[in-house]
Specification:
Elements (H helix, E strand, L loop, with lengths): L2 H6 L25 H16 L2 E2 H8 L3 H13 L3 E6 L10 E5 L5 E6 L5 E8 L4 E8 L6 H18 L4 E8 L2 E2 L5 E4 L4 E4 L1 H9 L3 E5 H12 L6 E6 L3 E7 L2 E2 L31 H5 L1 H10 L4 H23 L3 E5 L2 H4 L2 H12 L11 E3 L5 H15 L3
Parallel strand pairs: 4-7, 7-11, 12-15, 15-16
Antiparallel strand pairs: 1-3, 2-3, 4-5, 5-6, 8-9, 9-10, 12-13, 13-14
Helix pairs in contact: 2-4, 3-4, 5-6, 7-13, 9-10, 10-12
Bound molecules: zinc ion.
Length: 389
């Protein structure tokens, strides 16, 4: 069968596993894209389902044996898939060769520019395992070019320590980021209209993908921690930002600002003064320095302080949960502050403020991942280069 025809009638894929979990792209599959679409389907299936024979793969993907054989041969040539042996034959005939996604044949560079004291970076294998870590102190002088040079040198150092061919560089940065990798605005780094992706690509001669740090982090939770297809991840640190996956699609937004919930005012009772000048922004209620300072000042009241802050978070996100019908809210931030009382209060507020029964199973939990932005940045590369997520 002509592969372009085949691709227009994609096999039904089970929800929640394998190919069904792939992040959806908004683009329609045109005949000229069929080959890369099918290749992504094959790689995605191998990535999540593990080792199998070519015949198994044909069954799983709904593609023909001929197409599978061709795409697997190409992927073996590229060093993305390898043959790992033969399976014990159950019946007559030649025992089938088992193939597997090769997680160690290439490496990824993941960069996190959102830290308050340093830029962090890692070399990862294609399974998201961190192999090497490096960091650079955050430049103190407010100079856009200097901040760029520090980030570029960090990537360079990581490329040098990589022990396999590097598939690409993913960067999670604070601020608003256009899909072309331009940082529209990141005040902490004094970047305005900084063409970060294009410049790194030119300086390093590697594919570079740049996204907002929270948008990167949610991908790590989706790919490596089995988060559902409708999930919001909220990073809580000096500020508050979120990344949203809805219907297995990463939300970007009309202004590339989807997930910018930090300066939504929570309630009508004013509240603490925010860095933006308003009172009662979500970020003003729940930022880490404020919570830590309040608990240090009144240790006896720490439970009520955390419960109050958690409730504010729940109030702020209840309409988002309802509008997008999210399955799960994941927090990323300091465990000592956010686990337990804070997360439980947020969950309770969500239950109290959404339609009874419908959202009864929603809960707020803490991510278990170390280096979540770097790992999410690695997923950006996996997704862009191989269609795997
Ligand atoms: Zn604000």
């Amino acid at each position: 069968m002509d592969p372009s025809v085949e691709s227009r009638y994609p096999a039904a894929t089970p929800v929640g596993f394998g190919a069904g979990r792939r992040l959806r792209s908004q683009a329609k599959v045109l005949p000229e894209h069929a080959r890369s679409h099918n290749r992504a389907l094959v790689l995605q299936t191998l990535y999540h389902r593990g080792a199998m024979s070519r015949a198994d793969l044909a069954r799983e993907t709904g593609l023909t044996r001929v197409t599978i054989s061709d795409l697997v041969a190409e992927s073996i040539m590229d060093g993305i898939v390898h043959e790992i042996g033969v399976r014990e034959a159950a019946g007559p005939g030649k025992p089938p060769i088992v193939i597997e996604f090769d997680r160690t044949g290439h490496q990824l560079i993941g960069i996190d520019l959102s830290g308050t004291t340093s830029f962090e970076g890692a070399v990862l294998d294609l399974g998201g395992r961190i192999l090497e870590r490096r960091s650079r102190p955050l430049p103190q002088e407010h100079d856009a070019e200097h901040a760029y040079a520090v980030a570029r040198d960090l990537v360079r150092e990581l490329v040098e320590v990589a022990t396999r061919p590097v598939l690409g560089v993913g960067v999670g940065t604070p601020g608003v980021v256009r899909p072309d990798g331009t940082v529209v605005s990141a005040p902490n780094l004094t970047w305005t209209e900084m063409p970060l992706g294009a410049r790194l690509n030119a300086d390093l001669d590697l594919p570079v993908i740049v996204r907002n740090d929270a948008n990167a982090a949610v991908l790590a939770e989706y790919t490596f921690a089995d988060a559902p297809s409708d999930v919001m991840l909220i990073r809580i640190g000096r500020g508050v930002g979120a990344g949203v996956i809805a219907g297995a699609q990463s939300l970007v937004g009309a202004r590339f600002s989807a997930g910018e919930i930090g300066h939504v005012v929570v309630g009508t009772d004013e509240g603490p003064l925010c860095v933006c000048g308003r009172r009662g922004c979500l970020e003003a209620w729940v930022n880490v320095p404020r919570l830590s300072a309040a608990i240090t000042a009144e240790p006896a009241h720490s439970a009520s302080l955390l419960a109050d802050a958690g409730a504010r978070l729940g109030i702020a996100i209840a309409p988002i949960v309802a509008a997008l019908d999210l399955s799960e809210i994941v927090l990323a931030g300091p465990r000592d502050l956010l686990a337990g009382t804070f997360a439980d209060a947020a969950t309770r507020a969500l239950h109290e403020r959404t339609l009874d029964g419908v959202f009864a199973d929603i809960h707020v939990r803490l991510s278990e991942q170390e280096g979540i932005v770097m790992r999410g940045a690695a997923v950006m590369v996996l997704s862009a280069q191989l269609g795997v997520s």
